[in-house]
Amino acid sequence: MTLIQLHYLIVIAETNSLNKAAEQLYVSQPSLTSAIKELEKELMVIGKTSARYLQEGIDNYVKRTNYYMPFDIRYIPDIKSTKAMTEEKQKEKEGELFLNALTPGDVLVLLDERGKEMTSREFASYIDRKSVTVSKRLVFVVGGPYGFSPAMYERADDKISLSKMTFSHEMVRLFFVEQTYRAMTILRGEPYHHD
Known about the structure:
The protein contains 8 helices and 5 strands. By secondary structure, the chain is α/β, with parallel strands linked by helices. The protein has a 5-stranded parallel β-sheet with strand order 2-1-4-3-5. Helix 4 links the parallel strand 1 and strand 2.
């Protein structure tokens, strides 16, 4: 049950019996499944995944996740001639490409080492909350090899860390899509996740 649904239940319970409140909540609120199915979710990355084994895993979990909700990966083309650029300049150029790919109303979440760490169950709850509060698209971004530009941090609505460890930006893609699939199975009470 989301916080909005719980608040709604409490308000009705104050004026009616608890059974009546539960019936009204069930009738008036979309089910968790339908709210998630309406949420558009996208993972945005710089460049194609070069390792075939990683791409096969990513494709597998994207396909599985699409059973539960619309989910896609948008590949932003690599920046050319980066050898002559400083790390800061490369982050700035990548940031411009990411920001230009966003549309008004998108909720931007950076996958960043300084973001909030969550358990798989906490991430599932996060997706559940966003399915009710996000009106357009929920866009997660994996930065390039040097991270994000200051403009990306300024635009971001949230930051999530997958681990305190450092992973290649291509490996993070696989880890994230697997965790997204895992979140869907947790929300549906399916046996994929074990605590």
